[in-house]
Amino acid sequence: xxxxxxxxxxxxxxxxxxxxxxxxxxxxxxxxxxxxxxxxxxxxxxxxxxxxxxxxxxxxxxxxxxxxxxxxxxxxxxxxxxxxxxxxxxxxxxxxxxxxxxxxxxxxxxxxxxxxxxxxxxxxxxxxxxxxxxxxxxxxxxxxxxxxxxxxxxxxxxxxxxxxxxxxxxxxxxxxxxxxx
Length: 181
What we know:
The protein is of the alpha+beta class. The chain has helices at 2-17, 50-62, 94-104, 172-179; strands at 78-85, 90-92, 111-121, 124-134, 142-154, 161-168. The longest helix is centred in the N-terminal third of the chain and has 16 residues, at 2-17.
């Protein structure tokens, strides 16, 4: 309950103070807290090709719906200091993002449908997917289907993902509003 208040409270603070120092123009980008310090995660697949990264992401989304199910997140292809950004949050650190996933959507009552995924360049993978479901909040709000376009940037040397950024078909403000209905 305290973590939930911190998430909602930091979102409201971000909306009212317009903190955008590191946020892209399409992101409110407030930090999610408290998620603890960045921890090292084992089993990294260093030096894999962009095709292998794409295939691993595709499996993690299509089979495991990793955006709503932290247990299905393919942590082996993400750098521990990866930055995760969407229109409402900005999280630095893989272990912190995995924790954030675990407190947001109810994976038993939520869905992710991958529409397409492709390699955009030598260090970039892009995907389009749709999501809907129920948040793990006391009032159990339903988030209607929305589309997301995700870009993953790979480190040139290690091949690990160093950035994951979502663009949604709804605004960050609309997403926060749906949280309270």
